[in-house]
């Protein structure tokens, strides 16, 4: 953690698996919206040959061109950047009013700014930033955003444990993750708002979940290699307690849920959002599902089964979802599953 604050035993206990039944003690009155546009500003892949449809727009090679002397007339068309990171722009419309938030900021300082420029998206209308959690591949582009726009007074919603020092320890060595600095963000002009409880933004139309209840029996979090510095020593950090999601209620259609990595478990996240809002219908689930790698393969089947029961209209997993989970989701939800790619925009309209 930044400074002297650390996760406590009570924090860990609160985030552990436990039964949660009935309505939320403090239900969230989430205001329905008329339209949501989610633009994937950065993802692990960019595929210029993907085809869009009525609700999903793709970006090809013609986004922009750059100097290249080996071609005539000295330039070549390029697409978008892809990196092991995630960032999305979420534009929420109610009537004639539209508000745009950035959810996560990718890995590299210049990545999201470069892609926004190539897409012709002006970031000057950005109203705020939300971080799903403190991992560096979701916050690396904040410095580029600040340098490009100037972030004076830009509100940023984060969980108080986003500043946790973390590392990955494996057979090939230990990787110390870059640790997000609250002091640096404040110096760059961001107005940091720390919340572990649910937050309502955009006049009650956007919900940031805060800490997610861990209620399923199969979503156990990160393996032993993922550690956090707490109490003067490195400890296994399975929960990533700062993980949170963004939720919108699309009028007469159901919830749209956007995750960063889904460290809390995507099924936990969906059920938590349903319980908080009282809206049971899931319309769309997008973002990272963190089901890649051997440690998460046993989680794929029950996750897919639970999502099939939700019957979403759109499932667009990206980032850390993993290829095995992508194949399983595509097979189980063929009419809903859409491959993710940098530059993709999903336009979802209420009824």
UniProtKB/TrEMBL annotation:
<dbReference type="InterPro" id="IPR036866">
    <property type="entry name" value="RibonucZ/Hydroxyglut_hydro"/>
</dbReference>
<dbReference type="InterPro" id="IPR052926">
    <property type="entry name" value="Metallo-beta-lactamase_dom"/>
</dbReference>
<dbReference type="InterPro" id="IPR041712">
    <property type="entry name" value="DHPS-like_MBL-fold"/>
</dbReference>
<protein>
    <submittedName>
        <fullName>7,8-dihydropterin-6-yl-methyl-4-(Beta-D-ribofuranosyl)aminobenzene 5'-phosphate synthase</fullName>
    </submittedName>
</protein>
<feature type="domain" description="Metallo-beta-lactamase">
    <location>
        <begin position="93"/>
        <end position="189"/>
    </location>
</feature>
<dbReference type="GO" id="GO:0016740">
    <property type="term" value="F:transferase activity"/>
</dbReference>
<dbReference type="InterPro" id="IPR001279">
    <property type="entry name" value="Metallo-B-lactamas"/>
</dbReference>
<dbReference type="Pfam" id="PF00753">
    <property type="entry name" value="Lactamase_B"/>
</dbReference>
């Amino acid at each position: 953690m930044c400074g002297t604050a650390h996760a406590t035993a009570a924090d860990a206990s609160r985030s552990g698996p436990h039964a949660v039944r009935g309505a939320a003690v403090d239900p969230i009155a989430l205001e329905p919206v008329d339209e949501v546009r989610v633009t994937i500003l950065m993802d692990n892949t960019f595929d210029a040959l993907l085809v869009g449809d009525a609700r999903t727009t793709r970006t090809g090679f013609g986004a922009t061109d750059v100097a290249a002397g080996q071609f005539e007339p000295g330039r070549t068309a390029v697409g978008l950047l892809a990196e092991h990171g995630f960032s999305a722009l979420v534009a929420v419309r109610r009537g004639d009013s539209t508000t745009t938030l950035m959810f996560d900021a990718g890995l590299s300082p210049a990545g999201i700014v470069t892609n926004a420029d190539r897409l012709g998206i002006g970031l000057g209308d950005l109203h705020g930033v939300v971080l799903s959690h403190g991992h560096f591949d979701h916050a690396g582009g904040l410095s580029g955003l600040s340098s490009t726009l100037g972030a004076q007074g830009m509100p940023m919603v984060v969980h108080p444990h986003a500043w946790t020092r973390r590392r990955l320890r494996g057979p090939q060595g230990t990787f110390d993750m870059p640790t997000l600095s609250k002091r640096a963000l404040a110096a760059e002009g961001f107005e940091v708002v720390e919340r572990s409880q649910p937050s309502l933004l955009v006049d009650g139309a956007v919900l940031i979940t805060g800490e997610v209840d861990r209620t399923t029996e199969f979503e156990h979090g990160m393996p032993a290699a993922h550690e956090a510095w707490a109490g003067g020593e490195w400890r296994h950090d399975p929960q990533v307690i700062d993980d949170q999601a963004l939720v919108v209620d699309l009028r007469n259609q159901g919830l749209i849920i956007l995750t960063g990595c889904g460290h809390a478990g995507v099924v936990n996240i969906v059920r938590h959002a349903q319980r908080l809002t009282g809206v049971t219908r899931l319309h769309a689930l997008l973002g990272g599902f963190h089901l890649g790698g051997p440690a998460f393969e046993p989680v794929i089947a029950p996750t897919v089964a639970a999502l099939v029961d939700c019957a979403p209209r759109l499932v667009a997993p990206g980032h850390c979802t993993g290829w095995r989970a992508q194949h399983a989701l595509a097979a189980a939800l063929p009419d809903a599953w859409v491959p993710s790619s940098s530059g993709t925009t999903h336009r979802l309209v209420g009824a």
